[in-house]
Structures are given as structure tokens and as C-alpha cells.
From TrEMBL:
Protein name (record): Cell volume regulation protein A
Lineage of producing organism: Bacteria, Bacillati, Bacillota, Bacilli, Bacillales
Keyword Glycosyltransferase: no
Chief location category: membrane
Membrane topology: Multi-pass membrane protein
Transmembrane segments: 6-25, 37-57, 63-80, 92-115, 121-143, 192-211, 276-295, 307-326, 338-358, 370-390
Keywords: Antiport, Cell membrane, Ion transport, Membrane, Transmembrane, Transmembrane helix, Transport
């Protein structure tokens, strides 16, 4: 499969080349405003058998396994960084988009494919189901560090993290109906609710067990805690899938629970998972790019069909689904238009498109190629214009204040001490006070203050200001008392700042 004539050395050389390519692609993706998935896929297509011929890869089953593994890692990382306080305010609309929205999108695209092209009704519906859901990897990457209003970002992220179960259910059900050539999809509706229920239940349970384990198991090295978190992500998906539930939903819910809990070595866990998610994205998109044959993809028929369906998806199906799903949900017309435009397609539809190939359905290769072209069109057109679209619709919030600094500590698992990071906001009670005026626990000491990327050495007369990052060393037994002091709020007059983007850890 990989450079067989070169053996082990050739494989390692290729792995290094792909990693370097991924890093360079990520760098230029940000600079050019092109979604990284487009460039990653292009790398795969260039080195594939129809390109430079470095790698010959046509195993859809292997691509499917790699894709599912990568999606688990990406969903887990996205859930870790999602603030529950923000998500719970958009839980109902996000759930509506993830179910009703996916169903409406799938039906509209399915009927379009049936009437416009040489597909049977079930084959058209299968194509619609495959592209019916937005993609977590694409959405998380598109919104990361962009100053989109928090309400919009939370809605899109929660939708993309929870809409995979509906798309997977519809896809597998339609494949089963096509393969069996009988039966009714209505008999499978109870299965969907079982999958959603089990996914939610297992996600909550494993998330709680995971956070308790991370905090209470004392390991010899702090480097083991991030690995432990990944193990919980994989076991969450596996046991939920074995039980007949939605593994993707369970992983996202478990990550929400773990990410919003007080964690030992929180910084290390988050940083490791972010890097691992990037690696998973690079691997997944390059593998999916290898699975495509440009000679088959860039034909007049596939390009014409793909562009027409992409147009219907972006301009008709997605907006109709959004506006119906968000009826009486307290969203303005501008916000609905933006949510419609930001519904990116990415790895999930491509991975789902491998299922018909694995099952050997007659129209599977045409479906895969059309889906691939739809994803490329969506990522390129929508993904590269999200920020400009938000500006035009006046849905830009305060610039996200992401700290470009860190304080690393030697493992203190046996000393029961932790370094806590906390960012103050306008309503923090400690803002405006000097350190000697704040009733910190006796076993808690501020080690450093980061203000506008400058390190402030704290002493008694130091005044805390809005936006400061406080790094506080505290013994584990006093962490709850410290948390109460830090989370105390004092209402202050409005200053025109968008509070949706205030953030603390």
C-alpha cells in the first residue's frame, strides 16, 4: 500500500513528509484564508496514484476506520474546549438543527438528486443523508480564534458535535434498505431514539468517571494524564457503539463533562489533545484525499452534478432547514442567515460516503465522487468567507483573548498541589482590588499575572484589572475555597463589551 518497494525506511520517510506537509499547509491555510481540509486533501490527491504515484491506496474500509478514529479525537478535543455555560443557552436550537435540520436537508438534497440525475429514489436519499450533517472538524477549525459572536459559535459547534447521529442513522438505514431491497425506514425510527438516548447516557456516565479518575488517580508523570484522557475518549465511543448507541454523540458529551470539570493538569490535557486533534485531521484528510482519483472526480459529469447539488445545498436546502428548525427560537434573520452559511461540510460526509463502497452498492463510486465534490465546494466557498460574512451581517464579537503564554510545572501529583489559570472579566469581584484586599485561602498564592502579554510580578499593592490572567498555586484541599473567591461576581454598568466572549477557566 505505502511505498512497498522502499520498505520500512520509505514508510518512515513518507510519514515525515506528510507531517511536514500538514504543518506547512496549516500555516498557509491561516494566512490565505483557505480551510485546511482543502489543502490536506490536495496533498493526498497529489501524492496518490493519479498524481505523483508515491502512494497507491484504494482501501475504503481502512479509510473508514482511520476516519472514525480521527473524528473521535476531533470531537473529543472540540468538546473539551466548549464552555457548558455558553452551550446550555443554545441547547434546544442546536438539538433542533441536529435532528430536524439534518432531516430536512437530507430530504431536499435526496429529492434533488432523484429528479435531476440517474439515481433511484433510495440512492438519491442516501446521497442526501450523507451530506445532511455539518462537520465538527471543519466547523471547529473555521471558528477557532475567530471573533464570531459567542452565541453563533456555540450554536454551530453544538450542532456539529451532535448532528452526526442523525446522519449516521439515515445513512446506515438507507444502505440497509437498498441492500435488502425491501422494508421501510419507518420501522427504524425507534432505533434512532435508542442510539441518541444511549449516546447521551454513556457520554454523561463515562465523562463523570473520566473526570473523577483524572483527579484522583495519582500517576508518576504528568505526561500520562493526557494519554488517560484519550483512552477515555476511545472507550466512550467503543462501549457506546457496542451497546447500540451513538458513539460520536457519547464522545462529545463525555468531553463536555470532562472539559467543564475541575481537572488536574488541565493545561497539559488540553494542549496534548489539541495537538493530537491536528495530527488526526492531517492523517484523515490526506487519507481521504488518497482515496480519490482526480481522473474520475474532475470529469464534466461529476463536476456538473456536484456543483449543482452544492449550489442547492448552500443556497436552498441548508437555509430552508435552518429557518424551519429555528422557528420561535429567538434568532434574528441575520443570525439565521449566518448559521445557514456557516454549515460547513467536511470529513463526516466523506467518511459516510465510504460506507456504500464497503457494502458494494452499485452507485457507490458515483455517490462518493459527488459527495467529495460537494465537500470541496462547501469548504472552499463557505469556509473561506465565514469571517467576511460575519462582518457583513454585524455578528462580530469582541476579539478572542487567547493567551500565548503558559506556565509549565514539574509533576506535582504526589504533593497535592495545582497551578490554576483564571482570567478576570468585567464582573469579577476581584477586579479593582489590590492583592492584600482579597481573601485568598492561606494555602493559595498568586505566582504570576499576565496582562496584555506582559508578566506582572505580584505583590501586596498589585491591583487586579479586567482581562488579567492569574496563575495561582494552591493545595488541592483549598481549591474549592479559592474557586468561590474567584467566581464571585459584582454587577457593573454596561460598557459596550460583548459579555458572550468573556472567558475564565
Amino acid at each position: 500500500m505505502f511505498l512497498n518497494s522502499f520498505g520500512t525506511n520509505g514508510f518512515l520517510l513518507l510519514a515525515a513528509f506528510l507531517l511536514f506537509s500538514g504543518i506547512i499547509v496549516a500555516k498557509f491555510s491561516s494566512r490565505w484564508g483557505i480551510p485546511s481540509l482543502i489543502l490536506f486533501i490536495m496533498v493526498g490527491m497529489v501524492i496518490g496514484s493519479d498524481g505523483l504515484g508515491l502512494v497507491y491506496f484504494h482501501d475504503a474500509g481502512t479509510a473508514q476506520i482511520i476516519g472514525v478514529f480521527a473524528l473521535v479525537i476531533i470531537l473529543f478535543e472540540g468538546g473539551l474546549h466548549t464552555k457548558w455555560a455558553t452551550v446550555k443557552s443554545v441547547a434546544l436550537p442546536s438539538l433542533s438543527l441536529a435532528t430536524i435540520g439534518v432531516l430536512i436537508t437530507s430530504l431536499l438534497i435526496g429529492f434533488s438528486a432523484y429528479f435531476l440525475f440517474n439515481f433511484s429514489l433510495l440512492e438519491g436519499m442516501l446521497l442526501g443523508a450523507i451530506v445532511g450533517s455539518t462537520d465538527a472538524a471543519a466547523v471547529f477549525a473555521a471558528l477557532k480564534e475567530r471573533n464570531i459572536k459567542a452565541k453563533m459559535g456555540a450554536t454551530l459547534e453544538a450542532e456539529s458535535g451532535t448532528n452526526d447521529p442523525m446522519a449516521v442513522f439515515l445513512t446506515l438505514s438507507l444502505i440497509e434498505l437498498i441492500a435488502a431491497n425491501d422494508g421501510s425506514i419507518w420501522t427504524m425510527i425507534p432505533t434512532f431514539f435508542v442510539q441518541m438516548g444511549l449516546g447521551l447516557l454513556f457520554g454523561l456516565a463515562v465523562g463523570k468517571i473520566g473526570s473523577l479518575s483524572i483527579n484522583n488517580i495519582r500517576l508518576d508523570s504528568s505526561a500520562l494524564y493526557p494519554i488517560l484522557s484519550v483512552a477515555f475518549a476511545l472507550i466512550t465511543y467503543s462501549i457506546t457503539a457496542f451497546a447500540g448507541g451513538s458513539g460520536f454523540l457519547a464522545v462529545y458529551v463525555a468531553a463536555l463533562v470532562i472539559g467543564n470539570s475541575e481537572l488536574t493538569y488541565r493545561y497539559s490535557i488540553f494542549q496534548f489533545n489539541e495537538g493530537f486533534a491536528w495530527m488526526a485531521q492531517i492523517l484523515m484528510f490526506i487519507i481521504l484525499g488518497l482515496l480519490v482519483y482526480p481522473g474520475q472526480l474532475f470529469t464534466a459529469e461529476i463536476m456538473g452534478n456536484g456543483l449543482l447539488l452544492a449550489f442547492i445545498l448552500i443556497i436552498v436546502a441548508r437555509p430552508v432547514a435552518v429557518f424551519i428548525s429555528l422557528i420561535k427560537m429567538n434568532y434574528t434573520v441575520k443570525e439565521k442567515i449566518f448559521i445557514s452559511w456557516a454549515g460547513l461540510r467536511g470529513a463526516v460526509p466523506i467518511v459516510l460516503a465510504t460506507f456504500p463502497i464497503v457494502e458494494g452498492l452499485g452507485a457507490s463510486r458515483d455517490i462518493f465522487n459527488i459527495v467529495f465534490f460537494i465537500v470541496l465546494s462547501s469548504a472552499l466557498v463557505q469556509g473561506s468567507t465565514i469571517s467576511n460574512f460575519a462582518n457583513k451581517l454585524e455578528l462580530v464579537g469582541k476579539k478572542k483573548d487567547v493567551p500565548h503564554h503558559s506556565i509549565e510545572l514539574i509533576s506535582m501529583g504526589k504533593t497535592q498541589a495545582e497551578m490554576i489559570q483564571f482570567q478576570t472579566n468585567r464582573e469579577s469581584a476581584v477586579v479593582g482590588k489590590k492583592l492584600y484586599e482579597i481573601s485568598f485561602p492561606n494555602r493559595a498564592n498568586i505566582s504570576a499575572i499576565i496582562r496584555e502579554n506582559r508578566v506582572i510580578t505580584p505583590y501586596g499593592e498589585t491591583e487586579i484589572k479586567e482581562g488579567d490572567f492569574l496563575y495561582i498555586l494552591v493545595e488541592a484541599a483549598y481549591k474549592e475555597r479559592l474557586k468561590k473567591v474567584l467566581e464571585e461576581r459584582v454587577p457593573r454598568p454596561e460598557t459596550g463589551v460583548d459579555r458572550d466572549t468573556d472567558k475564565d477557566d
